[in-house]
Structures are given as structure tokens and as C-alpha cells.
Amino acid sequence: MNTVLGRRSRMLAATTATAGLLLVAGCSSDDDGGGASKTAAGGVELVKGGQLTVCTHLPYPPFQSEIDGKVQGFDVSLVDLAAKNLGVKQEILDTPFENFKTGAFLNADQCDLGAAGMTITEERKKNVDFSDPYFAATQAVLVDKKSGITSFAGLKGKKVGAQAQTTGEDYAKGKDLDPISFESSDAVLNGLRTGQVEAVIIDYPVVQGWLKTPANADAFKVVDNLNTGEQYGFTVKKGNTKLLAALNKVITDAKADGTYKKLYEKWIGPYDESAAAPSAS
Question: Is-above-0.90 flag for pTM?
Fold first, then answer.
């Protein structure tokens, strides 16, 4: 999903205030683990006892978003498996996205790992360590059916939206487009819905979930799929080999025992085996 911070100020419609870290209800117990050991199963050291503290950037459905007062999604479910294996609960912090590029929240021991539908890139590897890839993503060109746009080539001269700091925005700029930047995926899609833009370039899994709503499917459609070779990974502080191994084991086991497929169908849609990126670093 996300890459380098954009240099422009045309930021529209932020949907989440993230000036500081915001504690969000996780998917497990409400106990704060204040007196618990900071060493979990397998000798994994945690920043806070009794819990696996996870940084994300909300909202980014279907990977993580707040549903019925609780953060849920595909990423959340996979990390819950890791937390269970470690004998702790998962707690989620909403944090500004620029922290994911620099690993600032990991280096400051605010979080144990980052989970935000994040694309593995060589630039990011300089600051954080990635898990094995757990998802292979493509970018979609989503348009208003009334726009007359029928492919990526038709975007020239049109108002195109993309999420700031993402590979979708970078792809558009690399193809000589001048995308309007939005703070979150929800804001991008709302920009399309309200006519601020005529088309958006955004991760296809996000579009899959959005088009499940009949009103959206009636008014908007995907006219192109851009295979950018992206793979998502979870991030940990550089050198945190034990937590990295625990995450990689969960990814491998979930794909082998059918759990991955079940979670994919629950959160994303009909299972696409090609989306299950090979578990190799």
C-alpha cells in the first residue's frame, strides 16, 4: 500500500485525527496487562507486559477498520493468531502513517509491530524488518460509471485521486499524472463518491470490499487492474528476530491449514490463491 511521504499540500478530507497515538480497543481482553511479564512465549520481548502492541493507520478496510466499536479486519485476524501463540492479547494503536516508513513507533518502543496493509519496499527495509509477505496486491482504477473512462490510459487530463504516501499515488505520478492526495482510503473513495475526482487509483482489495455495497456497485466500476508486483508484510524493529519468527510461523501455518483462506473469504471476498504471497523473505 503505502510508500514515501508526498511533497504536496493538496491534502483533502482526513477521516481520522492522528496527531498523537490513540489507543483503540483490540480484539481480545480488556485487561491492561500492567503487572504482566514483558517476555512472552518463545522468549519474545514485548514493549508492554501481557499484550502484543500493534500500530496501524485507520481506516483501511478490509485490513483494519473500526466496526461496532472494535478494530477488525484481515490484518487484525492474522495478528490475533500470533498473539494467541505468544500467550497474550492484541492491543491496537492508531498512529500517523509517516511512522510506518521510518519505523519511529517501533524504535521508540511504542509498538511491537506494524500492521497496516503495508507494501514491502527496499527503502523501508532500511528502517524496519519485514515479515514474510502475507498478501500479493494489485492497484485498481475505479471510476464513476458516468465518467466515460474505460482504462488507465483514459486518466490523462482527468481528476484522479489517490491516498497520500501510497504506492498508488507513486504509480500515478510515475505515469505523469497529477493525483489529488487524500489522507486515507476512506477519504479517497468519498472523494470519488462526492465528485471531487472522476477516478481513483487504489489497492484492489479495498475496492473489492467497497463494491460489496449495492449503491457503490451501481454507480462505480473497476476499469483496469494494475499489476505492480506489491506484497504486504508486517514490520518489527530491526533485529527483533524472535517476534519476526513468530509472525512468519503464523503466516506459514495459516496458509497450510486453511485458516488464511477462511479469513480471506471473511474479510476480502472469494478466495484468490494468487493473492496468498509465497512465504519467503
Answer: no
Sheet holding 89-94, edge to edge: 22-24, 89-94, 51-56, 113-114, 235-236, 129-130
Residue of 202, 165, 163 whose CA lies nearest to 180: 163
Residue-wise pLDDT for 28-69, tens only, equals: 434 444 567 899 999 999 999 999 999 998 888 889 999 999
β-pairing, 70-72 vs 199-203, is unpaired
Which position has the grid cell 482489495? 205
Buried b or exposed e, range 202-217, using 16+ CB within 10 angstroms: bbbbbbbbbbeeeebe
Q: Do the beta carbons of residue 202 and residue 162 sit within 8 Å? A: yes
Sign, CA dihedral 249-233-122-228, equals positive
Report the alpha-carbon distance of residue 277 to residue 117 in Å, rounded: 13
- DSSP letters, 197-254, are -SEEEEEHHHHHHHTTSHHHHHHEEEEEEEEEEEEE--EE-TT-HHHHHHHHHHHHHH
- Tabulate helix, strand, coil % of the chain (nearest 5): 35, 25, 40
